[in-house]
Design a protein that fits this description.
By secondary structure, the chain is α+β, with helices and mostly antiparallel strands. The chain has one domain: HIT family, subunit A (2-Layer Sandwich), CATH 3.30.428.10. It contains 3 helices and 5 strands, in the order αβββαββα. The protein has a 5-stranded antiparallel β-sheet, covered by helices on one side. It is globular, with a radius of gyration of 17 Å. The chain binds adenosine monophosphate and zinc ion.
Length: about 140
C-alpha cells in the first residue's frame, strides 16, 4: 500500500533495524521503544489488522515471534516479554499495517499499564449474554 510506512520499510524505501526476515515476515526494532529490544513483527503483505490478515501470514508472524522471543531472551534476559497487538484507532493502533509488538520487561523499566489492569469481577449475567451473542455470530 502506497502511503503505508511499514510497506515502505518492506520495500526498503525507509530504513529499519532488522532482526529477522523470511518469505512472509519482517521483524525490526521499534524506533520509539518502550524498553530495550522492543521489536515489531509484520507481514510483508499489507493487511490493516487482525480482521484482514490472511491465515498464512498470521501463522507466519506468530511462528516467527517464537524465534524472535528466544533470541530476545538469550540476549537481554528479560523478566518477561509482553506480546501486544492493537486493532483500530479505539485500541490505539497508530500504524494501520498489522504488527505484533514484543516488549521485553527489564528490571527498572517503566510500567506497562495495558498488562496491569486491576481485576474487578464483572456482572455474570452480562458476561453470559455477551458470550452468547458472540458465539452466535461466530463464522464456522
Ligand atoms: P501501534 O500503536 O500498535 O500502531 O504502534 C505502532 C508502533 O510503530 C509504535 O510503537 C511506533 O513507535 C512504531 N513505529 C512507527 N514508525 C516506525 C518506524 N519507521 N520504524 C520502527 N517503528 C516505527
Ligand atoms: Zn502496509
Amino acid at each position: 500500500m502506497e502511503d503505508c510506512i511499514f510497506c515502505k520499510i518492506v520495500k526498503g524505501e525507509i530504513p529499519c533495524f532488522k532482526v529477522y526476515e523470511d518469505e512472509r515476515v519482517l521483524a525490526f526494532e521499534d524506533i520509539n521503544p518502550i524498553s530495550k529490544g522492543h521489536t515489531l513483527l509484520i507481514p510483508k503483505a499489507h493487511a490493516a489488522n487482525l480482521q484482514e490478515i490472511s491465515d498464512d501470514d498470521l501463522a507466519a508472524v506468530h511462528l516467527a515471534s517464537k524465534k524472535v522471543i528466544r533470541a530476545i531472551q538469550e540476549v537481554l534476559h528479560p523478566t518477561g516479554v509482553a506480546a501486544l497487538q492493537l486493532n483500530g484507532k479505539g485500541a490505539n493502533q497508530v500504524v494501520m499495517h498489522y504488527h505484533l509488538h514484543l516488549v521485553p520487561r527489564l528490571p527498572g523499566g517503566p510500567p506497562l499499564p495495558v498488562s496491569a489492569w486491576e481485576l474487578q469481577p464483572g456482572d455474570m449475567e452480562t458476561i453470559k449474554r455477551t458470550a452468547e451473542k458472540i458465539s452466535g455470530a461466530m463464522v464456522k
